[in-house]
């Protein structure tokens, strides 16, 4: 009887030991906070990759199980983060805060030629489009054989549990979506302290981006659908968005256009 009682006395202590071990393995946030930013001191903006948020299409390598870039669970119509590899349901969409807008004319070589990076990036003030001719594949060709993609770049903060910065590049058929989004932002009016109306900063409001099927006589694809959610309620999100907007406008944020922003075959299929 005494032995049985002794065994019973030992069992709780074993359970407690297991519980203490599990608790010891979970470090508190304060433990990490004490060493905040250490090891990152030499990392500048040029050392960071700004993620692209892109819509996956039928020809995207991420949805092809035989492709080296395949992402498990990826399907056409989903939204994909090119850096973190996160997938978002296109029907539900994502919430973003627009921080900065830039229109550029990006010069490319045909797929399979060159490095896959832009040959040149021409500003919106450039007259480069006047030097192009539309070819049979609906590309705006230069005399040197390269083509120009008119590209609308929207720099955003993704509104989530852990807000992060990203870039959405819209071109071809999505340029009209970009213009619609810009018009939505510019049309917002708020009443100031003196009673006068003013247009708030683009990063004052949250928008939801979903994906929808679109089509023309060239085919069917997935495109963006933008709707306004409302003004930001969280001050920390507003400050993060404002800081990102300032960094982009100063030229501190480096953008590396290339294959990660969109699948060329998909984007070329619906000119």
3D architecture notes:
With 271 residues, the protein is α+β, with helices and mostly antiparallel strands. The chain has one domain (52-268). The chain has helices spanning 2-24, 29-33, 175-186, 235-249, 264-268, and strands at residues 53-55, 79-81, 87-88, 94-108, 120-123, 133-134, 140-141, 147-158, 164-171, 190-191, 197-198, 205-216, 219-231. The strands form three sheets. Strands 4, 5, 6, 7, 8, 9, 12 and 13 form an eight-stranded antiparallel beta sheet that branches. The chain has a three-stranded antiparallel beta sheet with strand order 1-2-3, with no helix packed on it. Strand 6 and strand 7 (140-141) form a beta hairpin. The longest helix is centred in the first third of the chain and has 23 residues, at 2-24. The radius of gyration is 25 Å and the shape is globular. The model is unreliable at 1-24 (pLDDT under 50).
Task: Please give the structural blueprint.
Layout: H1 2-24, H2 29-33, E1 53-55, E2 79-81, E3 87-88, E4 94-108, E5 120-123, E6 133-134, E7 140-141, E8 147-158, E9 164-171, H3 175-186, E10 190-191, E11 197-198, E12 205-216, E13 219-231, H4 235-249, H5 264-268
Antiparallel strand pairs: 1-2, 2-3, 4-5, 4-8, 4-12, 6-7, 7-8, 8-9, 10-11, 12-13
């Amino acid at each position: 009887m005494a032995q049985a009682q002794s065994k019973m006395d030992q069992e709780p202590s074993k359970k407690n030991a297991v519980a203490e071990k599990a608790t010891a393995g979970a470090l508190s946030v304060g433990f990490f906070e004490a060493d905040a930013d250490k090891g990152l001191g030499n990392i500048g903006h040029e050392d960071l990759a700004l993620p692209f948020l892109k819509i996956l299409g039928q020809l995207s390598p991420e949805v092809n199980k035989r492709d080296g870039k395949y992402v498990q669970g990826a399907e056409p119509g989903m939204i994909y983060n090119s850096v973190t590899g996160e997938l978002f349901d296109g029907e539900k969409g994502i919430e973003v805060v627009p921080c900065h807008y830039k229109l550029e004319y990006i010069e490319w070589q045909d797929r399979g030629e060159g490095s896959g990076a832009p040959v040149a990036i021409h500003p919106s003030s450039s007259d480069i489009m006047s030097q192009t001719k539309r070819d049979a594949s609906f590309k705006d060709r230069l005399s040197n054989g390269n083509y120009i993609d008119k590209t609308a770049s929207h720099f955003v903060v993704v509104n989530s549990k852990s807000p992060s910065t990203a870039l959405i590049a819209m071109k071809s058929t999505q340029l009209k979506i970009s213009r619609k989004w810009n018009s939505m932002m510019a049309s917002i009016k708020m009443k100031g302290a003196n009673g006068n109306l003013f247009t708030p900063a683009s990063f004052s409001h949250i928008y939801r981006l979903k994906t929808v099927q679109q089509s023309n006589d060239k085919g069917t694809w997935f495109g963006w659908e933008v709707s306004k959610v409302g003004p930001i309620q969280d001050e920390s999100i507003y400050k993060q968005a404002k800081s990102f907007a300032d960094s982009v406008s100063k030229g501190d944020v480096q953008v590396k256009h290339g294959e990660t922003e969109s699948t060329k075959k998909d984007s070329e299929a619906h000119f």
